[in-house]
Design brief:
Helix 1 packs antiparallel against helix 2. The chain has 97 residues and is mostly helical. Helix content is 64%, strand content 6%. The longest helix has 26 residues. A two-stranded antiparallel ribbon has the order 1-2.
């Protein structure tokens, strides 16, 4: 059912990991409703940290990690350059907008 290799397989595993975290945390919170002690508190803390867990998992993908690092360092790379139509100079995407 899954492709042997390639970008499609990588994307399937990428999104399945993200969904698996959401399902596991949601199941833990539902089960914690049967307990009325510190177990419920721990489950709610884990549920509130779901976004952090998602970011950590997303950063395992190379292109996401690269974009994240570029965003935090406020960098433009050669990939952001597009050729100008008249004089051959390259213009950044920020200059176009």
């Amino acid at each position: 059912l899954l492709p042997v290799n390639g970008k499609t397989r990588e994307l399937i595993f990428y999104f399945s990991r993200l969904l698996a975290v959401i399902y596991m945390v949601t199941i833990a919170v539902i089960i914690s409703f049967f307990f009325h002690s510190w177990v419920q508190s721990i489950a709610f803390v884990a549920f509130n940290l779901t976004g952090f867990f998602q970011v950590c998992l997303a950063l395992f993908k190379k292109d996401v990690r690269k974009a994240w690092i570029r965003m935090w360092k406020c960098q433009n790379t050669v990939e952001d350059k597009v050729p100008s139509s008249s004089d051959g100079e390259s213009v950044s995407n920020a200059d176009i907008m």
